[in-house]
Design a protein that fits this description.
This protein has one domain (2-68). It contains 1 helix and 4 strands. The chain has one helix at 32-52, and strands at residues 2-8, 14-15, 22-26, 60-63. A 4-stranded antiparallel beta sheet has the order 2-3-1-4, with helices on one face. Strand 2 and strand 3 (22-26) form a beta hairpin. It is globular, with a radius of gyration of 12 Å. The relative contact order is 0.30.
Length: 70
């Protein structure tokens, strides 16, 4: 499954812990455990983006598999 993360200044599903930028997360919304795992995966990706330069201005996609659920 592909998760799309789109920058948003009005509302957000996830906020970057480094810069505070908000993102809307689009994809198949499954069970509660899956939503938590997707959020953790997105947070990790957001932190890693700051190691390079910054978040892509048009958003980004994450390939996510349901076996990522703990």
């Amino acid at each position: 499954m592909s998760i799309e993360c789109v920058p948003s200044n009005l509302s957000s599903d996830v906020r970057c812990t480094v810069c505070g930028q908000g993102f809307l997360v689009y994809g198949d919304r499954g069970a509660s455990r899956e939503r938590v795992a997707v959020r953790e995966t997105v947070q990790t990706a957001l932190r890693q983006q700051h190691a390079g330069s910054d978040h892509p201005t048009d958003g980004f996609h994450i390939d996510w598999k349901t076996d990522n659920v703990r």
